[in-house]
Amino acid sequence: MKIFSRIITLLVFIAFFGFALKNDQIVTLQYFFGYEQTAPLVILLLIFFLAGGVLGCLAMVPMVFRHRRDISRHKKTIAEIEKERQAAQKAGLQPPPPDSV
C-alpha cells in the first residue's frame, strides 16, 4: 500500500510539473481599485491553490477543537466508569460480613 501511494504521488507530481511547463505564459491579474499583478500563470495558480488550502484548514480549526474537547470529556467519563466498575468488582470479591446473633 505504501508503494502504491508513492506511485500515485509521483504521477500527480509529474502531471503538475508538465502542467507548469506548458503554462508559462505571462498573465495580468486585475484586482479592485486599479491594482494589477503580472506573473506567470502557473505561479498565480499555485498561490491561489495554497491560499485555498490555508483557508480550508482555518475553517476546520473550530471543529477540531470541538472534537478534542468531546474526546477529553469522553475519556474522563470512561475513567469514572472504570473506577466504579473496579470498586464494584472489589466489593463483590470481599466476603460478606458475619451475621451477628
List keywords for this structure.
single chain, 101 residues, mainly alpha, two-stranded antiparallel sheet, 2 strands, 10% strand, elongated
Entry summary:
By secondary structure, the chain is mainly alpha-helical. The chain contains 2 helices and 2 strands. It has one domain (2-91).
Q: Helices and strands in order, then pairings?
A:
Layout: H1 2-22, E1 26-30, E2 36-40, H2 41-93
Antiparallel strand pairs: 1-2
What does this structure look like?
The protein is mostly helical. The chain has one domain. It has two helices and two strands. It has helices spanning 2-22, 41-93, and strands spanning 26-30, 36-40. The chain has a two-stranded antiparallel ribbon. Strand 1 and strand 2 (36-40) form a beta hairpin. It is elongated. The model has no long low-confidence stretch (mean pLDDT 89).
- Helix/strand order, N-terminal first: HEEH
Q: Determine Rg (CA atoms, Å).
A: 30 Å
Percentage of residues in strands = 5-15%
- What spatial form do the alpha-carbon principal axes imply? elongated
The strands making up the biggest β-sheet line up spatially as 1-2
Identify low-pLDDT runs: none
Can you summarize the main beta sheet?
A: 2 strands, antiparallel
What is the distance, rounded to the nearest whole angstrom, between the alpha carbons of the first and last residues?
A: 73 Å
- The number of distinct structural domains comes to 1
Number of helices: 2
Total E-strand runs: 2
On the 0 to 100 scale, the average pLDDT is: 89
